[in-house]
Amino acid sequence: MRTSGPESEPRRTLNGISDVRAFFHTNTVPLYFISPTPFNLLGIDRWIRNFFYLTYFDSFEGEHPRVFVPRRRNRMDFDSMEDVCNYLLRDPETLDFIAHRGPGGKACFVMLDEATHALAREVGLEVMQPSAELRHRLGSKIVMTRLAEKAGVASVPHVIGRAGSYDELLALAHGAGLGDDLVVQCAYGDAGTTTFFVRGQRDWDRHAGDVVGQELKVMKRIRNVEVCLEGAVTRHGTVVGPAMTSLVGYPELTPYKGGWCGNDVWRGALTPEQTHTAREMVRKLGDRMRREGYRGYFEVDLLHDRDSGELYLGEVNPRLSGVSPMTNLTTEAYADMPLFLFHLLEYMDVDYELDIDEINARWERGYGGDDVWGQLMIWETSPHVELITAAPRTGVWRLDDDGRVSFARSANDWATLTEAEAFYMRIAAPGDVRCKGAELGVLVTRGHLQTKDYKLTERCRRWVEGIKGQFASTRLTPGEPIVPRLVARA
């Protein structure tokens, strides 16, 4: 006769947020975030037992108890974040760390490709993300524009096609009534490097090598600002995070004209009506992605037309992103749980019941708070190539009334910040090369970093100047090898 026991007991269903939170607080499955740095999910370890960061760069100098960095690292010139993650999955020290925590581990990656999936299988890790093929397809701006149209989400007036010359580009644009002031976007790549502004033959000649031979999204140029939201596609619907504005192209922070370099998140980022519209757009996109087989986290850039007030689709990133820390530290997240936990639920082999419509309605209403948070990505903007001899350490820093920046205390994230403080996470360290486009670090603070008319606040400028002032470096002589440090942004 068969006896009852743990194996024959029916699997318990989690009912409601409190059950889910308790589930993660008592989690026994080893969970790993594998990435160049812990940045994108920093602070999530406060919510999940047995959650670890496996990283290549030692931002915390060994002081974070949940961050593992192999001690014997070869200095590598990585071409992508995928390369870093794949290196870690081959690293003997990292594999020993995983093996020591037992079988049945699951992993999430900041970026991954087919090789990542294969390597993870070899070491016994389950990947908590959709297939590489699906993510690649949905990562196409062309594909997502078409899927968005089916979902009822509008893009800026545009046409999709190919152009081998400026005359062919104009013929495409004029056929769609777009005029001569155009934005040309390739299917893949971030907006800072694969979006081109074309207003004449000279602009076309400058960018032709990047666009000829590809299917392009050609848009009418509008006067817009970027608004970001993240979502999580679940079996019960799409959960939508808070709206935030983006900092783009500031020469104090990035050498790239269209380069993303930070965010402000607060309830007034959009009017209540615009907030509702934006959230509905993200929900519709998530629901459409679910029909395509997608589960989990994604990020949406919306374009807010400053003249008409309309909101349009910019792009969809089917993954974690550089704005994920802002999403997960909001008051909405702390009143329920971080958005990333909804992603994890889809991969934790657990049955659960959640009223996603009620959660979305509650997050849209908010909790009466007026918290403002901001983050800065600080890139090197100088053309000089130098070797870093001193760099600010990770932790809490203070901005004095006279504009001076000083180290206040060690910290693993931004949980204890006061209004005059910021959490800085080191990316560039002594021994690294300081060159144009290299990311120096990430700063998170309370309060606005950008004004209503889209300029850096004076406080933001002081933080940037103060942190950059903590670096010291010496010029490299011609011929010395350069090993760039990958950015933390996804």
* Quantity of strands, as a count: 25
CATH fold type of the largest domain = D-amino Acid Aminotransferase, Chain A, domain 1
Terminal CA distance: 55 Å
The CATH class name of the largest domain reads Alpha Beta
Low-confidence stretches: 1-6
CATH superfamily membership of the largest domain: ATP-grasp fold, B domain
- Tally the structural domains: 4
GO molecular function: ATP binding; metal ion binding
Protein name: Biotin carboxylase
Keywords: ATP-binding, Nucleotide-binding
Organism: Mycobacterium branderi
Outline the structure in words:
It is a single chain. This protein is an alpha+beta fold and 490 residues long. It has four domains: 6-128, Rossmann fold; 157-220, ATP-grasp fold, A domain (Dna Ligase, domain 1), CATH 3.30.1490; 223-365, ATP-grasp fold, B domain (D-amino Acid Aminotransferase, Chain A, domain 1), CATH 3.30.470; 373-475, no CATH class. Helix content is 28%, strand content 26%. Strand 5 (106-109), helix 4 (114-122) and strand 6 form a beta-alpha-beta unit. The longest helix has 20 residues, at 272-291. It comes from Mycobacterium branderi. This is Biotin carboxylase. One of its GO terms (molecular function) is metal ion binding.
